[in-house]
Amino acid sequence: MDEIPDPRTESDTAGARTTDTDDPRDGPERDVRLEAVVVRYSADSDRCTLVPRDGPPEAMLTAWLSADLETVVDLEDAR
After folding, report:
1. Among 20, 51, 57, 65, which is most exposed with the fewest C-beta within 10 angstroms?
2. Which of 19, 46, 51 has the alpha carbon at shortest distance from 32?
3. What single DSSP character describes residue 14?
4. 20, 16, 52, 50: which is closest to 36 by C-alpha?
């Protein structure tokens, strides 16, 4: 059976294998604290937006995630 290659590993032309240690799929090197901002709408689903708590101000414009509030659950409730 063939070995399944690690997608973060690539072969060079000489056949040696190297590993990319800066792969973004490895995740952040530090914990990221998020702040939840809830916007309530009278005629639509309320929205919860997660933004980096300690990031630079421009991160609030570029690094965020929004979801309908009814789809967001407390971590302890989901365990």
Report:
1. 57
2. 51
3. T
4. 50
Phi, psi of 23 (to 5 degrees): -70, 125
Return the SS3 of 17: strand
Strand pairing class (9-11; 65-68): unpaired
pTM over 0.85: no
Compute the distance between CA of residue 72 and CA of residue 49 in angstroms, rounded to an integer. 10
- Spell out the residues 6+ positions from residue 46 whose beta carbon is closer than 8 angstroms to its own: 38, 39, 40, 68, 69, 70
Q: Where are the beta strands (DSSP E) in the chain?
A: 9-11, 17-19, 34-39, 47-52, 65-68
Separation of alpha carbons 75 and 68, rounded Å: 16
| Token pair of 57 as six digits | 């101000």
pLDDT in tens, 27-67: 667 777 888 899 999 999 999 998 888 878 887 788 889 99
